[in-house]
Amino acid sequence: MARTIQCAYFNKQADGLDFQLYPGELGKRIFDNISKEAWALWQQKQTMLINEKKLNMMNLDDRKLLEQQMVNFLFEGKDVEIEGYVPPSE
Hints:
- The chain is 49% helix and 9% strand.
- It contains three helices and two strands, in the order ββααα.
- The protein has helices at 24-33, 36-52, 60-76; strands at 4-7, 12-15.
- The longest helix has 17 residues, at 36-52.
- It is globular.
């Protein structure tokens, strides 16, 4: 049975992640407060961000940038800023 959490991104009850996907305190915060659906949205944004900005995950500064964008997206409701990208209208 899926565990239900209060998703910080959608501000509603939703299925939580099956296990902690990110290390440390931030990983615990994500596990406790981010739904599977919100995490899937982040993964799409993360891929676009890595590709568009040509981030190197071996580079500490690039990892820090990605982590900050993740926190902004998941917990502060800010969209990922990717130059030239226009999100589709709903």
